[in-house]
Amino acid sequence: MNPFIRCAGALAVAACSTLTLPAWGQSCADLPHPRSVADSEGCLAVVPVSDSPGPRRVVVAMLHGDGRGSMETRQVDRWTGIGQSLSGAGRVVVFLVRPGYRSPAGDSSGWANPNDDDYTPKNVDRVAQALRNLRTTYQADKVVLVGHSGGAATSALVLGRHPDAADGAVLLGCPCDVPPWREHRNSQRGGGGAWGKSLNPLDAVAGIRAGTPVHVATGAQDDNTLPMFGQRWVETAAARGVAAKFESVPGRDHGSIQAWPQIGKRLGEVLEALR
Prior knowledge:
Layout: H1 10-16, E1 36-38, E2 43-51, E3 58-63, H2 73-85, E4 91-96, H3 121-137, E5 142-148, H4 150-161, E6 168-172, H5 178-189, E7 213-219, H6 227-239, E8 243-249, H7 263-273
Parallel strand pairs: 3-4, 3-5, 5-6, 6-7, 7-8
Antiparallel strand pairs: 1-2, 2-4
Helix pairs in contact: 3-4
């Protein structure tokens, strides 16, 4: 079986068995469904992980972190493994390649900043439209996001700017307050400047629908997206009626939070809150 696409359930295996990943550099426009999805200005490359039958249809869309506009095979493998752990009855689990990113799964159209400052209005809008299209394609009742780092920030921005595009989220290692996060990272690295192109998830909290379930988890040893950035976002969101929770995860840092065994459980809690 293709090393990037591992499917859960008999129907999923049948659906995915004929899929093969493209060579590096293949445009999402050349990828057929379900390996691509249209957005507001182009398309995003997709890695379909599982499509399991069940009484309710939920699209679980995973979004990766920053990487200067490109991803490696090991990163796609890691997300495929995470997606397997999130599979369940009635769930369609997919991994989205963010706008402008090149990857072994295909290249998403658009622009990604080589310096990572790309949480732009256009990129957030494009992800939101891709999610709407996935909801329609799979006739899903709900769309839930699982994002890490820059993918968590993008997910939080989608919830605030496009509340119709997603119904809940699990945010891992979220740089949810961009300006102070950049100050912190610049002090660690000896400069770099502010991010002038990116939106701040904290500023978009007011647009999130009251009652939206969001679980934010940051590793207690994360010296990149410090726990206080996610906790500040949760406190602000909760004060506005969002069903937001924060968790500092012992023994995890910014990278290892992706291997946290409780991601699936937290996703299940978000889905249960949506019933």
